[in-house]
Amino acid sequence: MSGSRPASPEQEQTQYAQRLFPAPVDHGIARPDRAVSTVERGTDTVAYNDPDGRWYEGGGRVGEKAVESIAVYPPTRGVATQGDPFEPVKIGILVDMDLGQLLSDWVDSTILAIEDALNEGVYDRPVKVITADARGLPRENYLKVRRGYQKLVDDGCVVVLGPMISDNSLNLMDTVNRTGVACLGWTGSVKFAGDYCFTVANGDIPTESVMGANWCAQQGHTKVGFFWEKGSSGDHYSEYFRTAAQNVGVEIIKEVRLGPDPRGFPGEP
Q: Which residues in the chain are classed under CATH 3.40.50.2300?
C-alpha cells in the first residue's frame, strides 16, 4: 500500500484576505456648501431656553442625555470621491459630573465648533464625537472617570474633552500622560499639567482667590470669615486666598472647612 502524496500547490484551496474590521460608514448626508452633522442637536433636549430659567442654568433641561456618537461631515465642495468612505477622526467628550441644563450647551457648542472648522477648511475629513458619561468625584468614584477616559481611548479618540472637576482631573493626570492621548480639562486646578494634559480653565483657582480678596478690600472689609470645601480645589483655593487676603490687608478671623456635602447648618430642615 503506497503512502498518500501531499497536495500540489495547484490543488490547495486559495485563501483570500478578509477585512479585519468593518468598512467605515458613509451616512450620505454630506453637502457641497457647508458642514453637516448626523443629529439636529447633541442631546435629547426637546426645547431650549426655558422662559422661566436663568441664564447661568444653561439652555437644556435637567436630566438630559448626550447622543453617544455624532458624525460631522465637511462640505464636499463638489468633489466626488471613489473607494471606501473616509473614516472619521474621533474626538471624545468625558462627562464627569451632573451638568444639569448645561450638557446641551457643551455638546452643541462642540458640534458647532467642528462645523466651523470644517467650513473654514481647517480639516477636510469627517469628525466623530463620542461621549462617555462617567461621573466621578465628589459624588461618585474616581475610578469611573479613569475608565470613561480609557473607553474613549479604546474607541480610537485622538483627544478627550473633559473632565471638569479638579479632583477628577488630578486623579486622571497620570493615566493621561502614560496613555499619550491628549486631554483638555475644563478645570480650575493649576496642577493638571503634563505632556498630554491641558486645561481651558472654566474659571481658575488662583485668579478667583485674588478676585475674592480684592473685592473684600474694595468693599472696606478688613476682617472676614472664610469657609472652604475639603478636597483638591478647596485646599488650593484656601492657600491662594490666604496669601491674596494678606497682600491686600484683609484679616481672616475664622476658617471653617466643609465636606463635599455639608449638613447641619443653622436653619437647615
A: 205-258
**Residue 41, all three cell numbers:** 442637536
What are the two backbone dihedrals, phi and then psi, of residue 105, each rounded to the nearest 5 degrees?
A: -60, -40
Amino acid at 48: Y
Report the 10 Å Cβ neighbour count for 190. Answer: 15
Q: Taking the model in full, what pTM does it have? A: 0.83
**DSSP state for residue 77 in the 8-state scheme:** T
Average pLDDT over residues 26-34: 95
List the 127-133 sheet strands across, edge first.
36-37, 69-73, 127-133, 89-95, 157-161, 182-185, 197-199
Burial of 85 (0-12, 13-18, 19+ CB in 10 A): middle
- Per the DSSP assignment, residues forming a β-bridge with 131 are 93
In sequence order, what E strands does 101-201 have?
127-133, 157-161, 182-185, 197-199
For position 86, what pLDDT does the model report?
92
Are 201 and 188 spatial neighbours (Cβ–Cβ below 8 Å)? yes
CA quadruple 87, 88, 89, 92: dihedral sign: negative
**For 205-258, which CATH superfamily applies?**
Response regulator (3.40.50.2300)
**54 DSSP assignment:** -
Q: Does domain 36-199 match CATH 3.40.50?
A: yes
Give 204-237 pLDDT, tens digit per residue: 888 888 999 999 999 999 999 998 888 777 888 8
Cell (9 digits) for 176: 493621561
Q: Residue 54 class from Cβ within 10 Å (0-12 exposed, 13-18 middle, 19+ buried)?
A: exposed
d(CA 51, CA 46): 14
197 vs 124: CA distance, rounded Å: 26
DSSP E strands in 29-179: the ranges are 36-37, 69-73, 89-95, 127-133, 157-161
